[in-house]
């Protein structure tokens, strides 16, 4: 039916209603009965409205039904408003869908696309019209379509999927990871008629997550799996009840490379050894890891002693033949490793016990001369206990230094004449997390054997400089004594670091007195003289500690330009009862006085010893008779000249 057949002309409406045309025109102008205007300007009235008014007019004159006309007008206006709202809503929806960066799609009942927005170009590499009739299966990265089968299975079982991640390949060959949110569309009978949903390109986020996961489980320098990966692999083997072997490999004398050629050369060596180990592992069914510092590990699943020993021998031979050449230096080939081996479940039924025992075996290889392997043996008795202790302290001292848990204690040194404090000696301690304090006798010896005493020495000086600086003018009145180990002063890299730190500090070098034990000074005279000369030029002072313990004290004393002598405590402790000690200590005091050096007697613990020292005209004493050690932070600055000795004993 045409549009005109559904309408009356103004003449037809006038006849139908029985009213003049002028009244219809007036009603139209007043908005009571609005007519549609044609292109030519002619009025047309809806047939439905005129017929309804005509029927009503039979019983009632039209003039009496202005309320009905008003209702009709309102009804038509509301219909127009609703239609316009629907049109606006559809336009908004279309704008949002077509401009969205997310893929918006609909499929038929078997999953083939019936509609896609423009984002299909970014997701699949094809425009929407070329995607109609295709499905996700056509772009699945794996030939088995396993991921998309799971997707459709989940849809059928749950009715919807949220954040489903799948891997596809675009038409240009580029990999894409997309996340899908979808829901099944059903008819009135509940039958599936299609799928509607959205998909978003999550490639960058997914690759970033993979990179973060990779970094968490791999060493950044060599890109080898790290200790976390090793633990996960071995734990998985434990859970399945399988056997296997774990090897720990540690580069021998690695600290020498770091200290003499720099950390860049150290990194270069680690990468070089990693390359050698990778080549070795191509021959074996094992996995290589870097577990920290200069340590590597090898996991050999389903291997026992014979295979583990074979791998260890191959590694030792390959590393021995590796020619290492630091940048800008000559090549040398004396690189070796020490290897520890443990078998599971025989040498450890859990990951902690197993890795601890591998560590012990590796340290035993170092103790036995390096460049060798040791298979863990739980029946080795005292050697095993000693290695356990080394392993324990190696890890503990590293944690202490990393967590800054070294603390300085103070003990007074007094003028014997009046017993007033004029010096303070600092004793180094370890502060445990539970508040306990560990004395140096428990860790200094093992720190020296592990090559970590240099770090302790450096940390003590560093803390001391901070202490002086933090006390401002009050701190400038004090003189501080710092005892240094033989290993530190004979390490040229350490000496350069120390010299640089002192140069950069605002502390007056004249406040610092570095102590060297008599035994250390005698063992490397030239090294000691060079170190004293270097720091004396800066204004620092020196003391000879434990003086009298050696047999060449008087002969070498004139060669060392020191300012103070600390008489060894073993000579002082029994001074009141031992005539020989009294003669020797008196001679030391007389010689020191003649050479203009100040003497401090250690281990003064009784009044009798103090009286004996005063009888020899000794000037200073230190020991429990005067004060027990206390935290340095609680020591008040003395108005007189004071000294603080930081000792590692």
Helix content: 40-55%
CATH superfamily of the largest domain: EAL domain
Q: Which residues form runs of ≥5 with pLDDT under 50?
A: 636-649
Q: Which structural class best describes the helix and strand composition?
A: alpha/beta
Average pLDDT, rounded to a whole number, is: 82
Order of strands in the sheet with the most strands?
A: 14-15-24-17-18-19-20-21-22
CATH architecture of the largest domain: Alpha-Beta Barrel
> Whole-number radius of gyration?
46 Å
SSE blueprint:
Elements: E1 7-9, H1 10-17, H2 21-30, E2 36-37, E3 43-46, H3 47-59, H4 66-99, E4 103-107, E5 113-116, H5 120-124, H6 128-131, H7 146-158, E6 160-169, E7 175-186, E8 192-201, H8 203-217, H9 227-240, E9 244-251, H10 254-261, H11 263-281, E10 287-292, E11 295-301, H12 305-320, E12 337-344, H13 351-367, E13 373-375, H14 382-402, E14 406-415, E15 420-431, E16 437-438, H15 444-449, H16 453-470, H17 472-475, E17 478-484, H18 486-489, H19 492-504, E18 512-517, H20 518-523, H21 525-536, E19 541-547, H22 553-557, E20 564-567, H23 569-573, H24 579-594, E21 598-601, H25 607-615, E22 620-622, E23 630-631, E24 642-647
Parallel strand pairs: 12-13, 15-24, 17-18, 17-24, 18-19, 19-20, 20-21, 21-22
Antiparallel strand pairs: 1-3, 2-3, 4-5, 4-8, 6-7, 7-8, 9-11, 9-12, 10-11, 14-15, 14-22, 14-23, 15-16
Helix pairs in contact: 10-11, 11-12, 13-14
């Amino acid at each position: 039916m045409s549009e005109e057949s559904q309408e009356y002309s103004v003449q037809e409406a006038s006849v139908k209603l029985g009213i003049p045309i002028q009244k219809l025109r007036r009603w139209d102008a007043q908005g009571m009965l609005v007519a549609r205007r044609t292109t030519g300007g002619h009025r047309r009235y809806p047939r439905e409205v005129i017929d309804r008014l005509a029927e009503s007019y039979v019983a009632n004159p039209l003039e009496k039904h202005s309320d009905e006309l008003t209702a009709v007008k309102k009804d038509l206006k509301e219909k127009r408003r609703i239609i316009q709202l629907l049109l606006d809503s559809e336009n908004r929806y279309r704008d949002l869908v077509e401009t969205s960066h997310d893929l918006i799609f609909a499929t038929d009942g078997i999953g083939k696309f019936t509609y896609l927005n423009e984002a299909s170009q970014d997701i699949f590499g094809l425009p929407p019209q070329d995607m109609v009739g295709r499905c996700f299966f056509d772009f699945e990265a794996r030939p088995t379509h396993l991921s998309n089968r799971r997707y459709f299975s989940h849809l059928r079982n749950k009715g919807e999927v949220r954040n489903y991640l799948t891997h596809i390949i675009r038409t240009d060959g580029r990999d894409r990871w997309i996340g899908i949110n979808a829901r099944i569309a059903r008819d009135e009978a509940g039958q599936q008629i299609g799928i509607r949903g959205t998909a978003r390109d999550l490639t960058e986020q997914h690759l970033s997550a993979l990179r973060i996961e990779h970094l968490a489980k791999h060493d950044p320098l060599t890109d080898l799996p790290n200790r976390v990966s090793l633990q996960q692999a071995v734990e998985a083997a434990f859970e399945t009840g399988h056997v296997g072997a774990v090897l720990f490999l540690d580069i021998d004398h690695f600290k020498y490379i770091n200290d003499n050629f720099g950390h860049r050369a150290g990194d270069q060596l680690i990468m070089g050894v990693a390359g050698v180990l990778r080549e070795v592992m191509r021959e074996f069914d094992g996995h290589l890891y870097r577990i920290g510092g200069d340590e590597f590990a090898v996991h050999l699943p389903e291997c026992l002693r014979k295979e583990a020993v074979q791998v260890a021998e191959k590694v030792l031979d390959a590393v021995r033949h590796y020619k290492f050449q630091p940048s800008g230096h000559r090549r040398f080939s004396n690189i070796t490793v020490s290897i520890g081996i443990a078998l599971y479940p025989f040498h450890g039924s859990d990951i902690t016990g197993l890795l601890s025992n591998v560590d012990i075996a590796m340290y035993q290889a170092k103790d036995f001369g390096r460049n060798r392997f040791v298979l863990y043996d739980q029946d080795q008795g005292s050697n095993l206990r000693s290695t356990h202790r080394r392993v324990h302290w190696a890890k503990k001292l590293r944690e202490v230094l990393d967590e800054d848990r070294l603390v300085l204690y103070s003990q007074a040194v007094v003028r014997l004449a009046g017993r007033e404090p004029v010096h303070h000696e600092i004793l180094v301690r370890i502060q445990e997390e539970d508040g306990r304090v560990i004395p140096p006798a428990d860790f200094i010896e093992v720190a020296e054997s592990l090559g970590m005493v240099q770090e302790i020495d450096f940390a003590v000086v560093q803390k001391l400089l901070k202490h002086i600086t933090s006390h401002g003018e009050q701190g400038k009145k004090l003189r501080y004594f710092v005892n240094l180990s033989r290993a530190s002063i004979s390490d040229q890299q350490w000496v350069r670091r120390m010299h640089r730190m002192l140069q950069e500090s605002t502390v007056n070098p004249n406040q610092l007195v570095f102590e060297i034990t008599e035994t250390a000074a005698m063992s490397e005279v030239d090294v000691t003289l060079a170190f004293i000369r270097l720091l004396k030029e800066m204004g620092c002072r020196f003391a000879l500690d434990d003086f009298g313990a050696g047999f060449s004290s008087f002969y070498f004393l004139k060669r060392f330009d020191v300012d103070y002598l600390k008489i060894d405590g073993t000579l002082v402790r029994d001074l009141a009862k031992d005539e020989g000690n009294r003669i020797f200590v008196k001679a030391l005091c007389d010689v020191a006085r003649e050479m203009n050096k100040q003497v401090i007697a250690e281990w003064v613990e009784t009044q009798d010893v103090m009286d004996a020292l005063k009888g020899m005209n000794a000037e200073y004493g230190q020991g429990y008779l005067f004060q027990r050690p206390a935290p340095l932070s609680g020591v008040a600055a003395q108005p007189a000249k004071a000294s603080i000795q930081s000792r590692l004993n």
